[in-house]
């Protein structure tokens, strides 16, 4: 454990020019995950890291916690470089990660036991933390007897019991249902505002835009591939915050606009005619069902939107978090069925044509747009047409993609074009043989 006697003056935490990359399976190349990330955390603030899935937010949190060493750069905790788990920093994970054979109190005490705290003090501090987080009376219960929200409260108590100065939260509410997450989120904010928590600062990773505006004093918006801080937004609204207040909605709108801004979150917001981002062979594609793509187009075309929707309002009406809505909107934009600009999504003439078409014309229009605007799909089709057998293995394209991205991202890209190619009858894919092929001529 890192010991420090540094004074509290200045930032509690400073992240300076951190780079993170991982070796690929062949060991010869590295995938860049984080690039030149710098930020600081002061005492008395809640800071949010907001960005897309895969933007490196969780990787950064693990570096800050001392669980992972960066490839380059450094993290200073109260004036000393972090080179392992740091005393004064605790972490709440997305999953509950409780030991099923231990009671609530034993799960909470386990960190204190590792620190060498005697049994009487462990019990006292554990019961204080359990009461604080609203689980008094459940000290002897086992995880299987608790609801998901209660298990996550145990995770919070376990993080708080060591009396950290900084608490790291890695999407701590995302595994909970909406009502449970809202209750727990509100309780944490109330305890923070009352000064009842032993912590001095919170750094929370989230992909929920409203959650970030609701909780945080500052929001750092990450850009992706590789991850870096693209924009910093102060949130100065007093607590408790009203989700329906115009000031709250304006901040949510701006974050949506920045996260969908073609030139990145820190660039001037695009206010002119909508434009389409360049899609290359190695652009990350998200596997999205064509039913979902068609459903969103139909929703957009009909009242009350009549072709144009505000993304935050659309997310609310569809009960979709931003992290799920963004890839759908961007895929429709790539295919030229919709435009995304200024936090709005607009259906195009092609999108209206798709919505109004029958099944077969829909497929033909989709296939045409897929080959015209998704280079990976066009590349697969071209390779299949050139080969005498009209066949090619999955590995042929996976290896090519993995020269530029992680194995997981390559898998996602290929899964996306498999789904879209099947729908448009552009090519077929056999899961058993892991081979692409052209449709056989009748």
Silhouette: globular
Structural class, from helix and strand content?
Answer: alpha/beta
CATH superfamily membership of the largest domain: P-loop containing nucleotide triphosphate hydrolases
CATH class identity of the largest domain:
Alpha Beta
How many β-strand runs? 16
Helix content: 40-55%
Question: Number of helical segments?
Answer: 15
Q: Any idea what the radius of gyration is?
A: 24 Å
Low-confidence segments: 1-8
Instruction: Give the amount of beta strand, in percent.
Output: 15-25%
Mean pLDDT: 87
Number of domains: 2
For the largest beta-sheet, the strand count, sense and barrel status come to:
6 strands, mixed
What is the CATH topology assignment of the largest domain?
Answer: Rossmann fold
Task: Output the strand order for the largest sheet.
Answer: 6-7-8-3-9-10
Based on the model shown, name its key terms.
alpha/beta, 19% strand, four-stranded antiparallel β-sheet, 442 residues, disordered N terminus, Rossmann fold, 15 helices, Arc Repressor Mutant, subunit A
Element layout with pairings:
Elements: E1 13-23, E2 30-41, E3 46-50, H1 57-65, E4 72-77, E5 80-81, E6 89-92, H2 104-114, H3 119-132, H4 148-160, E7 166-170, H5 178-194, E8 201-206, H6 209-215, E9 218-223, E10 228-234, H7 246-259, H8 290-301, E11 308-310, H9 311-318, H10 322-334, E12 338-341, E13 344-347, H11 349-356, H12 359-373, H13 375-386, E14 391-393, H14 394-401, H15 407-423, E15 428-430, E16 435-437
Parallel strand pairs: 3-8, 3-9, 6-7, 7-8
Antiparallel strand pairs: 1-2, 1-4, 4-5, 9-10, 11-13, 12-13, 14-16, 15-16
Helix pairs in contact: 2-3, 2-4, 3-4, 6-7, 8-10, 8-11, 12-13, 14-15
